[in-house]
Design goal:
single chain; 6-stranded mixed β-sheet; 3-stranded mixed β-sheet; binds 3-methylmercaptopropionate-CoA (MMPA-CoA)
Length: 259
């Protein structure tokens, strides 16, 4: 195994690809090598994979940007570096399949930016969220200014950056950092359970949710409604939809259950 390959621990479980950040001694700080390995993992997603879970090995999701790599970078290199992160995190956000982040321990700076590029975030009670960029004299560069305010609001993000405020897992699920809060050490198990479930959806529905829904949500209302109609008509005309609806009408599949 090459050294760069060992920065990620990649495993396939059924139709789910597990991508484990694997620098536990450095609290999964994100160096260039690990970011490029993430890019590679998403570029070569096997066709049979229906969902991805990203998690951190060793009790922390990620301590963010590897600060030891920052020291010698000038302005141009910094710009290119940030754009490289954008390229990779865009690949996650626009992945063919749903991506679920399992969060525990530190979800800091660039680690939070990585988590924000996933579609679903699942946290256990040890998770905490921070943006210490302000105190380090730097700024976010992995897409947080664009993605995080959409989750928690720009005022909350500004407070985190200005004051160093840290949010705990319990607050995080209320405020929008994560959609799920589990019992102790339960994030990866829950993320896998959700991944197995979403992998069973019709591929076109998952495509619509990942690719069309975010565009519709940000479009002007009339453009958005037209896009919704177009996407709905494409989805319902797919044979997969016809099969699934027939199965329901013939009582071959379960009903929606409350809770
Ligand atoms: C690191 C990093 C890192 C740990 N870059 N090496 N992120 C931060 O400002 C967070 C910095 N890290 C911490 O505050 C703490 O390490 C933690 C709270 C995450 C964990 O504390 P702890 O006591 O469990 O571990 P530790 O002893 O502090 O760290 C273990 C080792 O990991 C240690 O190295 P060692 O060689 O002395 O063993 C640390 O130096 C190393 N380490 N975090 C490099 N981040 C695209 S822009 C994004 C901008 C940002 O992400 S800014 C936020 C940066």
């Amino acid at each position: 195994m090459t050294q760069s390959a060992s920065l990620l621990q990649i495993e396939t479980r059924g139709r789910v690809l597990l991508v484990g950040l694997n620098r536990p001694a450095k609290r999964n700080a994100l160096n260039d090598g690990i970011i490029l390995e993430i890019e590679r993992a998403f570029q070569v997603l096997p066709a049979e994979i229906g969902a991805v879970v990203i998690h951190g090995i060793g009790g922390h999701f990620s301590a963010g940007l590897d600060l030891s790599e920052l020291q010698e970078r000038d302005a141009t290199a910094g710009l290119m570096h940030s754009r490289m992160w954008h390229r990779v995190f865009d690949l996650i956000q626009h992945a063919r399949v749903p991506v679920i982040a399992a969060l525990q321990g530190a979800v800091i700076g660039g680690g939070l930016e990585l988590a924000c590029s996933a579609h679903i975030r699942v946290a256990d009670p040890s998770a905490y969220y921070a943006l210490p960029e302000g105190s380090r004299g730097i700024f976010v560069g992995g897409g947080a200014s664009m993605r995080l305010p959409r989750l928690i609001g720009v005022h909350r993000m500004a407070d985190m950056m200005l004051t160093g405020r840290v949010y705990k897992a319990e607050e995080g699920v209320t405020l929008g950092f994560a959609q799920y809060l589990t019992e102790a050490d339960g994030a990866l198990t829950k993320a896998l359970e959700l991944a197995e479930r979403v992998a069973q959806n019709a591929p076109l529905t998952n495509f619509a949710v990942l690719q069309a829904l975010p565009l519709i949500a940000e479009a002007s209302p009339q453009t958005g409604l037209m896009l919704e109609s177009l996407m709905a008509s494409v989805a319902q005309s797919d044979q997969e939809a016809k099969n699934r609806i027939r199965d329901f009408l013939e009582k071959k599949v379960g009903k929606v259950k409350s809770g």
